[in-house]
Design brief:
With 131 residues, the chain is mainly beta. The protein has a domain of 86 residues. The chain has 1 helix and 7 strands. The strands form 2 sheets. It has a 5-stranded mixed beta sheet with strand order 2-1-7-4-3, with no helix packed on it. Strands 5-6 form a two-stranded antiparallel sheet. The two termini are 30 Å apart.
């Protein structure tokens, strides 16, 4: 599972790969819940789940209970891009609970630890391509 940590002070996001055995600690947690950063290899940090997506790319929605996929009539928010006023579309989304099918988990830092995030462990490098 990939864990994306948004550092609101530094205004950047960092991505970390979490091993399958450690990812099991996240199962059952919901969007909006806080967890100890030590679970993800970030000791001293406290993180809050803000969203994510499953292995097929369907986004998690906070108002959908459970772990399964549902089709909803949406007019905004995660999983839909409104191109004109009043547009509503039926889209498939995933519930708000983390499961084994979750491929990416988005979070933000609520409490900071002693070391900066850049120094804590191997982060997946994302290089911008020059156009």
């Amino acid at each position: 599972m990939k864990l994306v940590v948004n550092d609101v002070k530094a205004v950047k996001s960092l991505q970390k790969e979490v091993a399958d055995d450690k990812a099991a600690a996240f199962y059952g947690k919901k969007i909006g819940e806080e967890f100890d950063g030590g679970m993800a290899g970030l000791p001293g940090y406290k993180l809050k789940i803000t969203g994510g997506s499953d292995r097929d790319g369907f986004p998690m929605r906070p108002e959908v209970s459970g772990q399964g996929r549902k089709k909803l009539l949406l007019s905004g928010g995660p999983g839909i891009h409104v191109t004109r006023k009043g547009l509503r579309l039926v889209k498939a989304v995933v519930g708000n609970t983390v499961s084994a099918r979750t491929a990416q988990l988005n979070s933000k830092v609520v409490e900071y630890g002693g070391k900066p995030l850049d120094e804590l462990g191997p982060w997946l490098a994302k290089e911008k391509k020059k156009a």
